[in-house]
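Hi C.,

You asked whether I'd gotten around to modeling the 97-residue construct. I have! Everything is below, sequence then structure, no commentary in between.
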Amino acid sequence: MTGKIGASAALGQLTGWRQGKGDRDVIEKTFKFADFKTAWAFMTGTAIKADGMDHHPEWFNVYNKVEVTLTTHDVDGVSSKDVELAGYMDALAAKLG
């Protein structure tokens, strides 16, 4: 089982992510792409990775923008699973441009 590490510890390992507002222990990031097709490709690639991890993001998409919130519900906060998925998302976004 994955243990809680907290948003502050996670942010020390990531670039461009921020701590969520409010009382939930979450990390957030907004990704912007050239167009809807690229945003959708990002979401598809992330979905495949997330499903393999059995760890699914909260997200919202409009056209070329994908707003992501990561937290681990089993531990009621940010865990190493969130750091792993965030790192994957950052690498995928860089690859897609």
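If it helps when you're writing up: The chain has a mean pLDDT of 96.

Thanks,
B.
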